[in-house]
Amino acid sequence: MMEYKGFIGKVDFDDDAGIFHGEVINTRDVITFQGTTVDEIRQALHDSVEDYLAFCAQLGHEPEKPFTGKLMLRLPPDLHRRAYIAARQAGKSLNAWIADSLDKTTAHAH
């Protein structure tokens, strides 16, 4: 993973083509980049993000920010019941318990 100005890029290597290619994964807008070396792929991420930001500014739009903190979640009824009970046992609301649980399991995913 690579990060630039809060945009997180996931990079893969295409062995057949001999290039790194990447995509920004924390926005719904499509931002891609590629290069043949680590320095090139890093610069390509920076250039792609800057191009995206300039394009948004030119159109008078705010850059896309999909993470509002609201998440609609569907669970099997039994899992919903177990989560509710676990939350009550922990003395928390279901929302707070789920947020804490997700925070613990994703602490290293940045």
* Largest sheet: number of strands, sense, barrel closure: 4 strands, antiparallel
Count the beta strands: 4
Category from helices, strands and their pairing: alpha+beta
Q: Numbering strands along the chain, what is their spatial order in the largest sheet?
A: 1-2-3-4
Strand content: 15-25%
Mean pLDDT score: 91
Global morphology = elongated
- Rg of Cα set: 19 Å
Q: What would you note in describing this structure?
A:
This protein is of the alpha+beta class and 110 residues long. The protein has two domains: 2-59, no CATH class; 68-110, Arc Repressor Mutant, CATH 1.10.1220. 44% of the residues lie in helices and 19% in strands. It is built from three helices and four strands, in the order ββββααα. The chain has helices at residues 38-59, 77-89, 94-106; strands at 2-4, 7-14, 19-24, 32-35. Strands 1-2-3-4 form a four-stranded antiparallel sheet, covered by helices on one side. β3 (19-24) and β4 form a beta hairpin. The protein is elongated, with a radius of gyration of 19 Å.
Furnish the topology, listing elements before pairings.
Layout lengths: L1 E3 L2 E8 L4 E6 L7 E4 L2 H22 L17 H13 L4 H13 L4
Antiparallel strand pairs: 1-2, 2-3, 3-4
